[in-house]
Amino acid sequence: MLKKKYIFLFATSFSGLFLNNFAEATVLNNSYKEVIDHVWQIVYRDFLDSSGKFQKSNWINLRKEVLSKKYSDSNEAYDAIRNMLSNLNDSYTRFLEPKEFNQMRIDTSGELTGVGIQIVKDKESDDLIIISPIEGTPAFDAGIKARDQILSIDDISTEGMNIEEAVKLIRGQRGTKVKLEILRGSKSFFKILSREKIEIKSVSSKVNQTNNGLLIGYVRIKQFNANASKETRDAINDLETKKVAGYVLDLRSNPGGLLESSIDISRHFINKGVIVSTVSKDGLKETKKGNGQALTKKPLVVLVNEGSASASEIVSGAIKDNKRGKLVGKKTFGKGLVQSMRTLVDGSGLTVTVAKYLTPNGTDINKSGIIPDIEVRMNINPILQREIGTRKDKQYRAGEKELINIINRKNQISEFKPDTTNLNAFLKINKKDQVFALN
Fold it and tell me: In 229-240, which positions are buried (b, 16+ CB within 10 angstroms) versus exposed (e)?
């Protein structure tokens, strides 16, 4: 069974040095080798290979090679670690120097320093791809989109560049600027972004009123950080006091975050039933379910798009498979792997893929994403940030329309009395609804 770490699609835990015996410890007469071997041991023990190419025999031989060398400083050791990890063919398993590691822990606690993007290295093309910009950050305001490719950073080509090198170039002193060359489709262009330190409020909410007077609770989750579950709980409790008829949960451009946060938030809406299953490299399966303490049973629609990743896909997949609500928007990003974040002996860190997750129906969405029940493209012309979650927002408008249909159908069923003569009227109404749904 997977241990309950601070898993995130990130996690925090301290792992000791896993040396086979005391005699072997004497080989590590260089403190830099301790860090290298610490990384090696974690991968050997916990790494889940999603590509099917990982060979333990090759990994064992690699250990002998890297520990036979001398390292004069941390830079040499860190380069050796990165070269070693490149053999895994897994862009999510990566090494972080002490400053980078500390910044990642700050990020998951609800603060972010930089321009507001999360990036991944595509295993097949070797390109640096943006998972999603975070709402309210410089990247989001500049129109950066999910799946944009970064061609250069401050005129330095990203060809062959790893994630750590890219992060170093993108991050910098607050108030300074960074120039990104972006490829979107077949067109490339430049964006100059200001670096900022931003405390992210992960959840926002409001009441929207439909044309026929229904009150809709709108909840937008921007990131699954340590505060997201409580903020979502507070938002739902507040909206319940305002007698909303149903909910639109907006997970668009949410790149993910903490696994436990996604499970807790799913439980706010799902009373019983499987939420997610995680499968380790040894095939051990752990299943998380609703705990019977859902905050609301009212009709629900979830908005998703190409930037909805990892934890967002856990929540949306759980809601879809449990038939708790409808998904509206575009197919999600497709990140079905779970990383654990480990502290190394010198204060640096390692994010290592330790499991894959499956939706309640057993679907492995890695790379393929989750297909919404109702596919809707976003507005052709960009909308303002204040227009997100309003009727000027095409995907929200479609989600609200579907929610109204669900509410109306629910009301018709609850009002129907089989011992009265309203059977024909009931059937006619539902027949019209079915035709309307096909239009």
Answer: bebbbebbeebe
Residue tagged active-site, from 288, 326, 335, 356: 335
- The DSSP 8-state label assigned to residue 86 in this structure reads G
Active site residue 261: no
Residues 268 and 390 placed together within one structural domain of the fold: yes
CA distance 200 to 113: 10
Q: The whole model's pTM is what?
A: 0.74
Among the listed residues 253, 310, 316, 340, the single catalytic one is 310
Residue 31 designated active-site: no
Give yes or no for residue 416 having a pLDDT over 60: no
Both 165 and 291 in one domain: the answer is no
Question: How does pLDDT run across 59-71, given as a tens digit for each residue?
Answer: 999 999 999 999 9
Active site residue 335: yes
pLDDT tens digits for range 9-29: 532 222 333 333 333 333 344
pLDDT digits (tens, 9 = 90+) for 322-352: 999 999 999 999 999 999 999 999 999 999 9
**Contact status, residue 239 vs residue 217, Cβ threshold 8 Å:** yes
276 forms bridges with which residues in the sheet?
288
Q: In terms of domains, do 314 and 225 share one?
A: yes
212 and 147 assigned to the same domain: no
Q: How many CA atoms lie within 13 A of 222 on its CB side?
A: 25
Measured CA distances, 75 to 80, 306, 331, 351, 413 (Å):
9, 37, 41, 19, 67
Burial of 74 (0-12, 13-18, 19+ CB in 10 A): middle
Q: Which of the residues 321, 326, 330, 356 is marked catalytic? A: 321
Assess whether 193 and 213 both reside in one domain: no
